[in-house]
Amino acid sequence: MKKIFVGNLSFNMTDAELRSMFEPYGAVESVLIVTDRNTGRSRGFAFVEMADNGAADQAITALNGKDLGGRTLTVNEARPKMERGGSRGGGGRRDDYRGHARQPREPRW
After folding, report:
1. CA–CA distance from 106 to each of 27, 42, 96, 97, 101 (Å)?
2. Average pLDDT, stretch 77-97?
3. Percent of the chain scored above 70 by pLDDT?
4. Is the Cβ–Cβ distance between 35 and 41 less than 8 Å?
5. How many CA atoms lie within 13 Å of 47's alpha carbon, on the beta-carbon side?
6. Domain-wise residue ranges, the chain
């Protein structure tokens, strides 16, 4: 089983249309067009799962860079989602006094 990332899709693309693009290369297990949580509108990318790895590789080779409705598709093997937080910011609070007790501040009145 191989999971394929499909990027730069038209916002009007349907699951059925995407499935029909991949079916000539082999059996498609699932299709998921990612949508915005608030609006329900497509975010322009999707994931396709194919049972046969060889068929998935053929589909990736054939469809990557293909022009579809004036948009050049990006098709490659999906990579695992990176963990949130970590060193990309937004995580823990940064303290100038690392390892040292903070000095109490005087009241501001």
Report:
1. 69, 52, 18, 17, 16
2. 63
3. 79
4. yes
5. 13
6. 2-79
State the pTM of this model. Answer: 0.72
Confidence of residue 108 (pLDDT cuts 50, 70, 90): confident
Q: Which residue has the tokens 């799962």?
A: 49
Name the CA dihedral angle for 24, 31, 10, 62, rounded to a multiple of 10 degrees: -30
Taking CA atoms, 12 is separated from 33, 38, 45, 96, in Å, by: 10, 17, 11, 49
Question: What is 2-79's CATH topology?
Answer: Alpha-Beta Plaits (3.30.70)
Q: Choose between 87 and 18: higher pLDDT.
A: 18
Per residue, the 3-state secondary structure of the chain, as one string, reads: CEEEEEECCCCCCCHHHHHHHHHHHCCEEEEEEEECCCCCCEEEEEEEEECCHHHHHHHHHHHCCCEECCEECEEEECCCCCCCCHHHCCCCCCCCCCCCCCCCCCCCC
